[in-house]
Amino acid sequence: xxxxxxxxxxxxxxxxxxxxxxxxxxxxxxxxxxxxxxxxxxxxxxxxxxxxxxxxxxxxxxxxxxxxxxxxxxxxxxxxxxxxxxxxxxxxxxxxxxxxxxxxxxxxxxxxxxxxxxxxxxxxxxxxxxxxxxxxxxxxxxxxxxxxxxxxxxxxxxxxxxxxxxxxxxxxxxxxxxxxxxxxxxxxxxxxxxxxxxxxxxxx
Length: 204
Prior knowledge:
This protein is α+β, with helices and mostly antiparallel strands.
């Protein structure tokens, strides 16, 4: 699975949260606690827009190619195959627009709106700023993987079990995505329902 948040962005956000938490605990400042809530709301809003296209892509990649034939295998029959899967990142999933009106804590450092990349987008970044008490807070938005095409090879094997059921195993090596890695593996079961219909079974 790809790492969906850029490390400097996460480190900066984590540092801000530690600062806010420490100050709130020391001073029991009601306003600071409210600011924590606003900051977290903004982080959740941005993370949802940034991560969702990548999680959708991960689902498409991980579920592809499990079934290679509808026919049932003989008991203990084994098969192996080398596959390659390619995912083209749609243009609509590579960036999104943020406006100052979307945030309650942060504001854009320049302008009132900006187009920023999702996890599948390019490396364009903008700065978000806010004020915590009298302390300024400044974070850089995360970059995307900047790849229009993501391809990965994987090995898949099947073992014929009883009653028209197969045990399936899939594994791929890690694929480098700029500063992230992508990997798919899993185990599944396939059961043939066509064996219960004589007309379908006769046609193979």
